[in-house]
Amino acid sequence: MSRVLLIEDDPAVREGVALALRRQNHDVAATATGEEGMDRLRAFRPDIVVLDLMLPGMTGLDVCRGIRAVDQTLPIIMATARGDEVDIVVGLEAGADDYVVKPVLARVLDARIRAVLRRAAGSTPRTEGLPKIDTYGDLAVDRAGLTVALNGEPIALAPSELRLLLTLSASPGQVFSRQQLLEAVWEHDYHGDARLVDACVKRLRTKMSEPPRAPRYIHTVRGFGYRFAAP
């Protein structure tokens, strides 16, 4: 049973989602504000956070950034009633691993939660038979231990960031379309969520200290997707 921290200010939505998730065998703690959510985070120790973007007081973006300041690996799914691309991209760049637009069906949210938790548990595609630790210049990727280090210093990666890097680096030089990465990393089988990939690449490049205009490892293939370059 996974522990889900639900932060949602609308009482009807909060109660409905919490009930639906409990029926799917999740242990749910539900709070109405970002401040309450951050307090509950310490005591409840969730496996994943489902976070409403539009919260009173401490906003969902503030909560997301607050969580990432203390825990880079805790999975976060952002829930928003606003489908505006700018809001979604800002949320993803703040550290969310995935997002859903409300109203969302319980089975869809449950599927997203389970997919993110599988990533957090270390399901790593395209790595079978590869060496335990791969070294690319200053970057070391431990595929068995699921750790990444740059110049000998560990890099704390969120589940989607780690899985994205593992997928790309397992096949240096191969170009992956955004759709291929969506299916491999996020397990999304539909089009239209390229922003998930782009935001995750941006976060990953930042953590890897990649120069914005001349990244060393993750290269953009314009009009198609990304490839990993092994120095």
Automatic annotation (TrEMBL):
Keywords: DNA-binding, Phosphoprotein, Transcription, Transcription regulation, Two-component regulatory system. Gene3D superfamilies: 3.40.50.2300, 6.10.250.690, Winged helix-like DNA-binding domain superfamily/Winged helix DNA-binding domain. Residues 131-230 bind DNA. Residues 3-117 form the Response regulatory domain. InterPro entries: CheY-like_superfamily, OmpR/PhoB-type_DNA-bd, Sig_transdc_resp-reg_C-effctor, Sig_transdc_resp-reg_receiver, WalR-like, WH-like_DNA-bd_sf. Coiled coil: none annotated. Pfam families: Response_reg, Trans_reg_C. Residues 131-230 form the OmpR/PhoB-type domain. The modification 4-aspartylphosphate is found at residue 52. It comes from the Bacteria. The keyword Phosphoprotein applies. This is Response regulator transcription factor.
